[in-house]
Amino acid sequence: MARGRYRGGKPTGRRHFSNVDDLKAEAANEQEEEAKSGSKTRGEPGELPPSDSESGSEEEEEEVVKNKGVAGIIETANLNAKTSQNTKAKNISLDDLDEQEAPQLSRREREAIQAQKAKERYWKLAEQGKTEQARIDLDRLAIIKKQRAEAAAKREEEKKAKEERASSARGPVKK
């Protein structure tokens, strides 16, 4: 019968932690070895170390290594290489903050902002009556106002005519 993921129980090996003193001693040894080796400098990540024949003669020109295919076009770097350290708030000056550019907006955000500005511009022009649609609407509104004024005048005339007919049907009023 299966008893879980591990056969024979969980792996319970002891972990080994380095002492701070050991780490410092290793770092000091590495620095001494670099000092002994002379003017050898480390290349960029991904580069091959120089051979003995190249390091001995500095007068010779460096050979250009041509990579085949896409590798010649695309420069690659070690993705596991240590990146720059984060800056602490106390080390940042106000001048540095001013020099930094505004954060780049995504395409959707830029398009949304442009659309909003275009809409505001359109409505501003529409209120002033400068757009084609606004002119058409204002013409239509003028026609409707005229029709309503004519209809109101016609109703007034009909009302007066009706009152005159009613007063003439009753006859003259005697006092």
From TrEMBL:
<feature type="region of interest" description="Disordered">
    <location>
        <begin position="148"/>
        <end position="175"/>
    </location>
</feature>
<dbReference type="InterPro" id="IPR019380">
    <property type="entry name" value="Casein_kinase_sb_PP28"/>
</dbReference>
<dbReference type="InterPro" id="IPR039876">
    <property type="entry name" value="HAP28"/>
</dbReference>
<feature type="compositionally biased region" description="Basic and acidic residues">
    <location>
        <begin position="34"/>
        <end position="45"/>
    </location>
</feature>
<dbReference type="Pfam" id="PF10252">
    <property type="entry name" value="PP28"/>
</dbReference>
<feature type="domain" description="Casein kinase substrate phosphoprotein PP28">
    <location>
        <begin position="85"/>
        <end position="161"/>
    </location>
</feature>
<feature type="region of interest" description="Disordered">
    <location>
        <begin position="1"/>
        <end position="110"/>
    </location>
</feature>
<feature type="compositionally biased region" description="Basic and acidic residues">
    <location>
        <begin position="18"/>
        <end position="27"/>
    </location>
</feature>
<feature type="compositionally biased region" description="Polar residues">
    <location>
        <begin position="77"/>
        <end position="90"/>
    </location>
</feature>
<feature type="compositionally biased region" description="Basic residues">
    <location>
        <begin position="1"/>
        <end position="17"/>
    </location>
</feature>
<feature type="compositionally biased region" description="Basic and acidic residues">
    <location>
        <begin position="148"/>
        <end position="167"/>
    </location>
</feature>
<protein>
    <recommendedName>
        <fullName>Casein kinase substrate phosphoprotein PP28 domain-containing protein</fullName>
    </recommendedName>
</protein>
